[in-house]
Each structure stands twice: as C-alpha cells, then as structure tokens.
Amino acid sequence: NAGVMQNPRHLVRRRGQEARLRCSPMKGHSHVYWYRQLPEEGLKFMVYLQKENIIDESGMPKERFSAEFPKEGPSILRIQQVVRGDSAAYFCASSPGTGKGNTIYFGEGSWLTVV
Amino acid sequence: RKEVEQDPGPFNVPEGATVAFNCTYSNSASQSFFWYRQDCRKEPKLLMSVYSSGNEDGRFTAQLNRASQYISLLIRDSKLSDSATYLCVVNSYYGQNFVFGPGTRLSVLP
Q1: Which of A39, A86, A107, B45 could connect to A4 by a Cys-Cys bridge, CB 3.0–4.6 Å?
Q2: Mind telling me how many Å the CA of A60 is from chain B's nearest CA?
Q3: Do A98 and B32 touch (CB under 8 A)?
C-alpha cells in the first residue's frame, strides 16, 4: 500500500498517560501535516513538518503536544498527560511539495479515546 | 475573517436534484484550489482540483472566480451516495500550506 499509513488506528489511554501516533507519508512525499477532528466538528490544522523541521505549528496546543519528523522513520505526534478533551480523530496527510498543483493525501486516521 | 469560509449547511436535497456549494478565501495570492469529500468517521479524500478555466468530472463541476475569491462546486443528479461533507481547500504556499474550510454537509434524501 503506497498510501499514507497511520498507526495505531485506534488507541485507548487513561487520563494522564501518553499517546504516540505515527505517520508514514506516501513514498516520495517529504511534507507531513497533522490535523485533529473532534466529534461532530471540522478538521483543525495542528502542525506542518518537513524532514527534521517544523514549518508551522500554529495549530498545536502550547502544552503537552509535540510533533517530529525525523530524518529516518515516521512522523510522530506525541500527546503527554492526556485528558478527556484529547479524544478525537487525528489525521496525518502528506504532499510531495508546496508548488502549484501539489495535492495533499490523507491517512485513515488514528482514533484516540481517553477514559 | 477566516482564511477559508463555507456555509456549514446542512443541505438536504432529494435524489436527482442539483446542488451548489460556494467557498470564499481571503488570500488573493492563493494558487491552488481543491474540493475534498469526507464521509462520516473517514478521512478526507480528494474529489477534484479546481482550475482557472473551470473543470468537470462527470456530475461534478468546479469553478474558480479569482476576482471575487470564491470557488464553487456543482453536483448534478444527486445520488444517495453523494451524502457527505464537502471541504474546500486552498493552497497558500506559506505557513500551513493547505488551508481547509470548515466543510458543508450534504444529505441526499430518497
């Protein structure tokens, strides 16, 4: 499958635990985006990364959330000390570049439930 | 003003109807435009790109009006399977790069 791969697809965490969500972009894509979607709400941008660099993290909560996209391996979205309000679908997307005509492709999402 | 705005709907239309959605964007320097479709509890999927001259794909027609900074999507002969949320996306080439609108929900009724 050459698409955007996310894992785990479903994750249950107790309040105060850590959640790590992984995303492998499509082959040849060096740009990764993370979005969060709360139940019955729209898609909210969180962070945009290129290899080893955070380009825009304007949508990331100031505390507990971090993201990385190392030179080797998948992009990781890390949520520390999860709270019930973190329960949401987290979508990763990738694109080959930023030029005109480039399109963004989504993974199937990681569904986080905090109990 | 939000960078990309859409009427949230819902639009409830009977099968076979024609329905149109509009989307407005604030960044006049935007270069690429897209419509995505999102089904309930699924990821957004590309429906079609929007070209300056307008483009058609089967029952779907997309138009771009740069002067007024809006994009439209027309769906003809609506099917039950068209029920979804339609997301307008603008590529701004800076910051978060791909900016999503809040989506317009469509329900096609039998």
Answers
A1: A107
A2: 12
A3: no
Instruction: Tell me how many residue pairs between chain A and chain B have CB atoms under 8 A apart.
Output: 60
Task: In whole angstroms, give the CA distance from residue B74 to residue B59.
Answer: 8
CA distances from A35 to A1, A79, B50, B75 (A): 22, 13, 23, 27
pLDDT digits (tens, 9 = 90+) for A46-91: 999 998 899 999 999 999 999 999 999 999 999 999 999 999 999 9
User: Which residue among A55, A103, A108 sits closest to B43, beta carbon to beta carbon?
Assistant: A108
For the stretch B35-53, pLDDT in tens is 999 999 999 999 999 988 8
In the predicted model, is pLDDT for residue B90 greater than 60? yes
> Is residue B77 packed enough to be buried (19+ CB in 10 Å), middle (13-18) or exposed (0-12)?
exposed
| Phi, psi for A85 (deg, rounded to 5) | -70, -10
